[in-house]
């Protein structure tokens, strides 16, 4: 069995997985989905999914990955050689990662564009006129070439980092920059909370009105929980294979889950008070963050330009680390199966996902007439990436974990070969065997029907 490369310390493993988990999902996607599906009630359901399902799935993926020391497809086949078909669960994860990367590139392109627009002063020139800021965003995101240009710039940066072999460098830099991003979000929270009428936003986020919750909203909460934690796509499984033998899988997964969730909630606190104060709608859709934040920055006077530039730059760095890890997972899988060179694999997926990304980007403007099941291509792929593919892959993973993989292997792996006491094991096993698969099944079926 090939021993994969491993992280040097528990902190290294945690930081790398946090780097994968924290990204546009927390700061761009969480506020817009939360706003779309009713605020506080959505948050409550989201938190249940994160802790009862997401963290359990993350632990399962870590156990499978560290036990098998392989990429997703081979990992399942190694742990249960009697039926190679379980590899399909891993394949589903790979397909999911592929589509997520294509979609991710679009929003990363927007972020890159907003770095430019902040630095150039174009955003500051709009002042606090909400209508002008909205018009600017619509003009930007629906114009045929500008978003594509920025998407291409972003994608090339990612490719250079991967082919240049400076990933480790980027990861080290991002370990320093990500805490800075969190500090910036905290400052934004303070600014947003002190805007006139901010209280309404706080209420919207924290006092749940369950009458606003729909079946689709519950499914969206599940999808957001999986998307944000990067589970249900085999990526955490790959990270699991890098976790050192002496590390505590339970603690590692809990740390990542808590950090990721706190950052999403902070993003919510930074956005919603401003949404109400500046007269936007919480249901503003994928552009929400790009509409609301410039308004907040522009209330900060001259400092706002510096702030906005720094914020979008750091968000772009967060997106780069996530995009790298997605491309890395695809490349690792492809090369393990075909024996192709790393650079060839990376280049292949780079070209295909960028091309798809361009199509998704155009689907908000010049190709918006193309609809699948009534949705634009972007909205369609967003749905696939959150509420269909990851829950399905998660269901396969958790059934494998709870019912197929030998239990001695799980106990042995979670207790680090008997050296750790695992007092929580009973509860964990119960969640993994009964609660998680049932919840996934019920939510998937009812969500699809409604
Ligand atoms: N969790 C990431 C975010 O919140 C998005 C994501 C989903 C991701 N799956 C991934 C990132 C796999 C890296 C690898 O932005």
How many domains would you count in the coordinates?
Answer: 1
E-strand count: 2
Query: What kind of assembly state do the chains in view correspond to?
Result: single chain
What is the fold-level CATH name, i.e. the topology? Answer: Hydantoin permease
Largest sheet: 2 strands, antiparallel
Q: Which compounds are bound in this model? A: tryptophan
| Spatial separation of the terminal alpha carbons | 46 Å
Mean pLDDT reading:
91
Helix count from the secondary structure assignment: 18
**Overall SS class:** mainly alpha
Series of secondary-structure elements, N-terminal to C-terminal: HHHHHHHHHHHHHHHEEHHH
Strand content: under 5%
Per CATH, which architecture?
Orthogonal Bundle
Shape: globular
Helix content, binned percent: over 70%
Enumerate the spans where pLDDT stays under 50 for 5 or more consecutive residues. Answer: none
* Spatial strand order of the main sheet: 1-2
Radius of gyration: 21 Å
Structure explained in plain terms:
The protein is built from 18 helices and two strands. The protein has helices at residues 10-21, 24-36, 40-68, 72-79, 87-119, 130-142, 146-163, 167-193, 199-206, 215-229, 235-240, 249-277, 288-297, 303-338, 342-362, 377-404, 407-414, 425-449; strands at 371-372, 375-376. The radius of gyration is 21 Å and the shape is globular. The chain starts with 9 loop residues before the first helix and ends with a helix. Tryptophan binds next to helix 1, helix 2, helix 5, helix 10 and helix 14.
């Amino acid at each position: 069995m090939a021993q994969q490369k491993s992280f040097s310390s528990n902190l290294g493993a945690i930081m790398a997985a946090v780097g994968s988990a924290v990204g546009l999902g927390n700061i761009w996607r969480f506020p817009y989905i939360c706003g779309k599906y009713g605020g506080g009630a959505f948050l409550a359901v989201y938190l249940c999914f994160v802790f009862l399902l997401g963290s359990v799935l993350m632990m399962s993926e870590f156990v499978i990955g560290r036990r098998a020391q392989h990429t997703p497809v081979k990992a399942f086949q190694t742990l249960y050689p009697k039926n190679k078909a379980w590899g399909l669960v891993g394949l589903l994860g790979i397909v999911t990662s592929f589509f997520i990367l294509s979609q991710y590139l679009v929003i990363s392109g927007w972020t890159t564009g907003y770095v430019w627009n902040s630095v150039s002063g174009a955003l500051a020139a709009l002042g606090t006129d909400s209508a002008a800021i909205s018009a600017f965003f619509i003009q930007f995101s629906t114009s045929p070439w500008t978003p594509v240009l920025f998407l291409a710039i972003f994608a090339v940066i990612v490719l250079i980092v991967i082919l240049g072999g400076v990933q480790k460098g980027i990861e080290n830099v991002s370990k320093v920059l990500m805490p800075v991003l969190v500090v910036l979000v905290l400052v934004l929270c303070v600014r947003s909370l002190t805007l006139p009428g901010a209280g309404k936003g706080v209420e919207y986020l924290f006092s749940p009105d369950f009458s606003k919750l729909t079946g689709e909203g519950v499914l969206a909460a599940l999808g957001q929980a999986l998307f944000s934690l990067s589970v249900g796509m085999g990526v955490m499984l790959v990270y699991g294979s890098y976790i050192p033998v002496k590390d505590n899988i339970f603690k590692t997964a809990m740390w990542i889950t808590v950090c990721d969730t706190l950052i999403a909630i902070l993003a919510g606190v930074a956005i919603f008070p401003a949404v109400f104060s500046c007269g936007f709608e919480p249901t503003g859709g994928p552009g929400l963050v790009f509409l609301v934040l410039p308004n907040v920055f522009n209330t900060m006077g001259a400092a706002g330009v510096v702030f906005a530039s720094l914020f979008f730059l750091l968000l772009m760095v967060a997106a780069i680390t996530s995009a790298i890890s997605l491309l890395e997972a695809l490349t690792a899988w492809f090369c393990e199966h075909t024996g192709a060179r790393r650079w060839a694999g990376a280049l292949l997926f780079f070209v295909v996902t960028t091309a798809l990304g361009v199509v998704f980007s155009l689907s908000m403007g010049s190709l918006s007439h193309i609809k699948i099941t009534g949705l634009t291509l972007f909205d369609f792929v967003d749905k696939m990436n959150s509420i269909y593919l990851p829950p399905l892959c998660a269901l396969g993973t958790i059934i494998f974990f709870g019912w197929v993989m030998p239990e001695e292997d799980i106990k042995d792996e979670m207790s680090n070969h008997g050296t750790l006491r695992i007092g929580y094991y009973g509860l964990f096993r119960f969640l993994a065997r009964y609660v998680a698969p049932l919840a996934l099944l019920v939510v998937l079926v009812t969500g699809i029907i409604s």
